[in-house]
Amino acid sequence: MDAIDLTRIDAAVGRAGAALRQRQQPDGHWVFELEADATIPAEFVLLAHYLDRVDLGLERRIGVYLRRIQGAHGGWPLFHDGAFNLSPSVKAYFALKMIGDDINAPHMIRAREAILAAGGAERSNVFTRVQLALYGDIPWRGVPVMPAEIMHLPRWFPFHISKVSYWSRTVMIPLLVLMARKPRARNARGVHVPELFATPPDQVRDWIRGPYRSAWGRVFKHLDRALRWVEPLFPATLRASAFAKAEAFVSERLNGEDGLGGIYPAMANAMMMFDTLGVPNDDPRVVTGWAALRKLLVDDGDSAYCQPCLSPVWDTGLAGHAIAEADSPASPAVTAAGQWLRGKQILDVIGDWKVARPDAPPGGWAFQYNNDFYPDVDDTAVVGMLLHREMQATGEAANAEAIVRARDWIIGMQASDGGWGAFDADNNHEYLNHIPFADHGALLDPSTADVTARCVSFLCQIGLTAEHPTVARGLAWLRRTQEADGSWFGRWGTNYIYGTWSVLCALNAAGVAKTDPAMARAAQFLLATQRADGGWGEDNETYADAPPGQYHRSNPSQAAWALLGLMAAGEAEHPAVARGVDWLAQVQKPDGEWDEDPYTAVGFPRVFYLRYHGYRQFFPLMALARYRNLRRANTPHVAWGF
Fold it and tell me: Going by fewer Cβ within 10 Å, which terminus of the chain is more open, N or C?
């Protein structure tokens, strides 16, 4: 690329950096909207009617949002421009009917026809059927048996609450009380959805059926049938003590106005659990629990939706890296972000992660504003790398101590297989993903390529070498999990582009040569998936059976990941990189930002997807700035782990 082009890129970096700095909060942090599908806003409406806490104006604005995101197929997808999905469609229809939409309105007719064509509400997933049972629209035999007495099981038992992921744990424990008590929503308007069932619910004989992912599914179905006979025989005292344990677990982890686990489903279940246990509305736990739920709302006065959680630590870490690359790690914006982040490091030894790693010292960061029981390994690595960059530039002594604590916690959280999960270590009891309750297939938190790569990147950036035992085991895990086409699976971002970028950064940070077969094959995957316009895009259907690295359009965040991956692989001077950089500059808006409607992140593959509104800004800025910096320095080598 010639000098004129580089000047153009510098101007694009300047505009993007200015736009991002304008979004920084006065205390130094960034937070952007985090959007999922129709599920969460629909559930918020249904929760309000369950508890009789209805805000008429708010629910009307949520109705505007739900109608706007309805698909051309009549139902609601899991992500922008996605295929019809039954479960969010059932919840969205129910919520709109609750809000007051006429079931004979054209949009409701189209939704109902699509739901019935897909088998009816009886074929929706477990969490949707629980919602229907809470409203009395299906019998409780329509959901799997999950006895509250699970709370008493010992750790050596095949099922124990510590053997499932943090998100499953916080969602499941209050739900155990609800499934045992079988309460009924207040539902003052008396709204039900019998018209969504292809077979009347009282005539459905087999609520739990295949396709099963393995023979374990059939085994657990028989166990479920047996438990239905045995559960009524459990002593009342045993159940009462299980309820007490569940209430204590939830109360200890309520997390103030940031909510149980920092995630909507756990918060909502906690509110319903307290309600069914007779806890009054003026109890401080209920007051703060409801405030935590309302804190998730995005309301512009015309439409509104509920976020699944908040992402300020993640947003601040990513924005800080982008500004450090665009301006300097000594930029006042980075300094302010670092100061805010240091104040969010979790230093108390209270987290659930201690069950699996009792000897690991604390030192992680959560994803949300506060979530001390559940620090996030990925966030910790990203924040640690940002603080290290700032310290290298400014000599900030306070960063050194925070980095050491983060290093020691991440080393302590390495799994036995050499990789890292997001919140727990060795949370990989795969058979549990086949119980009837886990029809979403996301009950666990095993090692993943993207989180493992981030940990290797962090440890190498701060000075550990590829020969260090922790790093060596992490690199070996990454090499074992490379796909045949050279890519890596992206658990928390879409998908193979995200995973491949993440691992290429780690290999580069560890000093792996660009000629190494793993590095070369990964770079070739990215080169082969570049689109004709110079960008990259990838469909969320790659979590099903769509071709890896492909989509019908290029997306700014995914193009940036591919470019950052290629630069980490030593390919900064490749013509494909110049074309990708040129594409990003072309599609930048005059205000310095980019548009991106597609979802490029993941909660649970094939079940729950995410649109981080900041991704369209962080990553393109980082990619353009890095390219400019490498070309100006006349070097192909990326010096950082991220």
Answer: N
CATH number reported for the structural domain that contains residue 253 in this entry: 1.50.10.20
Nearest to 319 by CA among 612, 29, 610, 27: 29
One domain, residues 480 and 525: yes
Task: Assess contact for 614 and 435: CB atoms under 8 A.
Answer: no
Contact of 561 with 619, CB cutoff 8 Å: yes
- At 188, phi and psi to the nearest 5? -60, -25
- Whole-number Å distance between alpha carbons of 499 and 489: 5
Q: Which residues contact 587 (CB under 8 A, 6 or more apart)?
A: 535, 554, 556, 594, 595
- Give yes or no: 378 in active site: yes
Question: The tokens 């005539």 sit on which residue?
Answer: 203
Give percent of the chain with pLDDT exceeding 90: 91
Which helix (H) or strand (E) segment holds residue 586: the answer is helix 575-587
* Distance separating alpha carbons of residues 184 and 181, to the nearest angstrom: 9
Question: End of a domain among 263, 283, 306?
Answer: 306
Domain count, the chain: 2
CB neighbour list of residue 640: distance below 8 Å, 6 or more residues apart: 385, 389, 461, 509
The residue length of the chain stands at 642
Residues 6+ apart with CB under 8 A from 303: 61, 62, 64, 65, 68
**Residues 337 and 288 both lie in one domain:** no
Which amino acid is located at 405 in the chain? R
The pLDDT tens digits for 40-79 are 999 999 999 999 999 999 999 999 999 999 999 999 999 9
Cα within 13 Å of Cα(608), Cβ side: 20
- Active-site residue identified among 378, 417, 450, 539: 378
Dihedral sign (CA 630, 631, 637, 642)? positive
Same domain, 560 and 523: yes
The residue among 281, 306, 331 that closes a domain is 306
Q: Which domain holds residue 565?
A: 311-413+448-633
pLDDT tens digits along 287-318: 999 999 999 999 999 999 999 999 999 999 99
Asked, for residue 272, whether it belongs to a domain, the answer is yes
Residues 485, 488, 494: CA angle, nearest 5 degrees? 110
- Is 114 inside a domain boundary? yes
- The phi and psi torsions of 35 (rounded to 5 degrees) equal -110, 140
Q: Is 59 exposed, middle or buried (0-12, 13-18, 19+ CB in 10 A)?
A: buried
299 and 322 part of one domain: no
Report if residue 21 sits inside a domain.
no
Judgement on whether residues 152 and 263 belong to the same structural domain of the protein: yes
